Amino acid sequence: MMQTTANFETRGSQTRRAAMLLRQGISAHGIFWCIIIAFYVCYMILHYLRPDLVTTNVLKGALIVFLGCAPVVGLCIVVMRVYHVIVHVRPKHPTIGIPKGVAEFFVNPKRWANGLPMMVVMVFFAYMFADIQGKIVLINPVLWDVDFAALDKALHFGKHPWEWLQPIFGFQLATSLINLNYVMWFFVMWTFFVHFGFQEERSELRTQFFLSFILTWLVGGIIMATFLATGGPCYFSRFGFSPDPYVDLMAYLRQVDTIYPVWAIRLQDIVWKGHLNGVPLSEISAMPSMHNATTLLFIVAGFRIGRFWGWLMCVHALFIFIGSFMLAWHYAVDSYVAWPVAYVIWLAMAPVARWWHSTAAQKDFDESLALT
Q1: CB contact at 8 A, 214 and 32
Q2: pLDDT by residue (tens digit) across 240-294?
Q3: Is this prediction's pTM over 0.85?
Q4: What are the two backbone dihedrals, phi and then psi, of residue 180, each rounded to the nearest 5 degrees?
Q5: 303 in Cβ contact with 309 (< 8 Å)
Q6: What angle do CA 186, 304, 291 make, to 5 degrees?
Q7: Quick check: 323 and 370 in contact, CB under 8 A?
Q8: Taking the CB of residue 308, how many other CB atoms lie within 10 A of it?
Q9: Under a CB-based contact definition with an 8 Å cutoff, are residues 315 and 216 in contact?
Q10: What is the CB neighbour count within 10 angstroms for residue 371?
Q11: How many helices (H) and strands (E) does the chain have?
């Protein structure tokens, strides 16, 4: 009886300690909460000034995104832990060591005190961002597609970039693999989120990464994207521009899709139908390319983790760049603009991260983590 009581007291003490860590973790992410609140205020002001734009329930939308992303986060955690145990721990009995290593991650209160607030921040941000970006062509219907297509051709010696690379990558299997790499961007993004978000100990690099990621999307994906509103090559003729220099590319991609899956084509059709029918989150915005902007962040953060991961992200980024115009999502100039935007923000966030980690709230939380 006394042992049972002691067990309950121990569990109660562990629960209280975890709850305390989580409360402090929420406070320690104050800089991100400020960004989200400011973003939400701007979101509401935009819809007040533009009553023609459909207003959505942010809390409900964020909850749906959270529930939809939870399995992806769980999968990333499991894959990363299995890799860590196999490569670094190297247990004598993998059938015991691997499940134990995965379980230790999920029951570690330090990781949840860091990770859960960060994931909530990113979910709210992702929903509001996607909702606004889906309305960009309504906010600014004057599109730059003709100008950027002409600039692409002028910069690449009289041909569009896809025309130069079509003899190299213009066969079915290569196109399908490029498409697969493009889809993998989503999982690479969540892998970085999990790696940095659920770290036991917070770091300036972690804060710099998330600040850079959020501000790159705000500056590039909303502010610049609104003033440089662009549909992208896949929607060139659908927006009524003619002659369409991407007719042959689109025909080729549709032909490949009958043999190997080219999800880009299917998603482009879904987004266009959503745009015509006013479906929320139907995002049509090409300039600057946020896929390419974020892969640059993955490269610089990857090299800070380790040389292998940095070079792996270089390969991933190269084929994201190629895929961005070979799959007709972007003009090449969308990437040329995106890269310096992302890198300047990355450099600018370094001193901000150092300052934030020098605050009293951060030091108190770090001390609590050290004592746990």
Answers
A1: yes
A2: 898 999 999 999 999 999 988 889 999 999 999 988 887 777 778 889 999 999 9
A3: yes
A4: -60, -45
A5: yes
A6: 25
A7: no
A8: 10
A9: no
A10: 8
A11: 17, 0
